[in-house]
From TrEMBL:
EC annotation from Swiss-Prot or TrEMBL: 2.4.-.-
Transmembrane stretches, start-end: 244-267, 279-304
Glycosyltransferase 2-like domain location: 14-151
Protein's organism: Antribacter soli
UniProt key word Membrane: yes
Pfam families, A to Z: Glycos_transf_2
Keyword entries, A-Z: Cell membrane, Glycosyltransferase, Lipopolysaccharide biosynthesis, Membrane, Transferase, Transmembrane, Transmembrane helix
GO MF annotation list: undecaprenyl-phosphate 4-deoxy-4-formamido-L-arabinose transferase activity
EC class: transferase
One biological process term in Gene Ontology: lipopolysaccharide biosynthetic process
Example of a GO cellular component annotation carried by this entry: plasma membrane
InterPro entries, alphabetized: Glyco_trans_2-like, Glycosyltransferase_2, Nucleotide-diphossugar_trans
Full protein name: Glycosyltransferase
């Protein structure tokens, strides 16, 4: 008698796409994914199938909700996920993960930058390395411009060097996650959490698979400088408590500098040298120390703010029904 467990099983994949400005690009992305819903065999010999595509509407400004409804009517495997308001890309991705049911979860962007066919390489890397998380490692520069690419690499390197811990340089929005791990992370992640940091808390082995980044469909990026800075700061705050240790270290450093300056002035006075008096040195020390104190308090306050949001029960996201099918969609007839 054949043992069913010995037979190679098909890997069922849930694709999660957070949607903010996808009215122009989503139809093209879905047409590429459609081929994978018929079943495929990876170069490594694994059998896979895209079982569902979850489009998470994050209340963008371009009418993407209408596009999502049209795609749901066209493709039976498309499942819309409606959020009550704009929560941001990471929260929308987690909402899609929580709503998924596949063996694996693939997350990709709405703008066509990621080639859906390359998820086969991600799956091969997961099976070969027995990895619960696989990130797409770009083999070419991201199509964002030199300055933004440089800022992205630089910020990740700063976090890796200063705060330590996970290799943040591997973080990418094109990722494959073991289904049960992704759904568990979506269940416990708190408000303001950085998705990849949360995955790092529980994921086993992490692997990389090469991918090629494409142009963003002629669409302007939805990330302003302010949002990118907020993105970076959230990664800092959720990477651990080493930021608080840096505050203590900064205080000790400034205290040591103050002692050195005091000893220098005392020895100079004892030796009979003329120590110039004036506002220059005093103002310099005052500005440095007061600025360091305010900077340190700001970091502590940010950590406290994150803890307060979690303690107050602020939700990371809230899934609702399609507004068009509820009270908000009822049109008042004109008289």
């Amino acid at each position: 008698m054949t043992n069913p467990s010995a037979q190679p099983a098909q890997h069922r994949i849930s694709v999660v796409i957070p949607v903010y400005q996808g009215s122009r690009t989503l139809p093209g992305v879905l047409s590429e994914i459609d081929v994978l819903t018929k079943g495929f065999t990876t170069p490594g010999g694994a059998d896979g199938l895209v079982a569902e595509v979850l489009l998470v509407f994050d209340h963008g400004p371009d009418g993407s909700d209408a596009t999502i409804r049209e795609l749901a009517e066209r493709y039976e495997y498309v499942r819309p996920v409606w959020l009550s308001r704009n929560f941001g890309q990471h929260a929308a991705t987690l909402a899609g993960m929580a709503s998924s049911g596949g063996d694996w979860i693939v997350t990709l962007d709405e703008d066509g930058q990621h080639d859906p066919a390359e998820m086969m390489g991600l799956l091969d890397a997961a099976v070969e390395n027995r990895a619960t998380v696989v990130y797409g490692a770009p083999s070419n520069p991201a199509p964002h411009g030199f300055l933004r690419n440089l800022a992205s690499k630089g910020s990740k390197k700063v976090i890796e060097m200063v705060l330590g811990g996970t290799d943040t340089s591997s973080y990418q929005s094109y990722r494959l996650v073991l289904g049960e791990v992704g759904r568990s992370v979506a269940a416990y992640a708190g408000a303001g959490v950085y998705l990849d940091v949360a995955l790092g808390w529980v994921a086993g082995d992490v692997a990389l698979a090469p991918v090629t980044l494409r142009e963003e469909g002629g669409r302007r990026s939805g990330y302003s400088f302010r949002r990118l800075l907020s993105h970076f700061w959230r990664m800092v705050l959720t990477s651990g408590t080493r930021g608080l240790r840096l505050v203590a270290g900064l205080g000790m450093f400034l205290a040591a500098v103050g002692v050195v300056i005091a000893v220098y002035l005392a020895v100079t006075r004892i030796l009979g040298a003329d120590v110039p008096s004036g506002w220059t040195s005093m103002m310099m020390v005052t500005l440095v120390t007061s600025g360091a104190v305010l900077f340190s308090l700001g970091i502590v306050a940010e950590y406290v703010g994150v803890a307060v949001n979690m303690a107050m029960g602020k939700p990371l996201y809230l899934i609702v029904g399609d507004p068009e099918n509820g009270p908000l969609g009822r049109k008042v007839p004109r008289r």
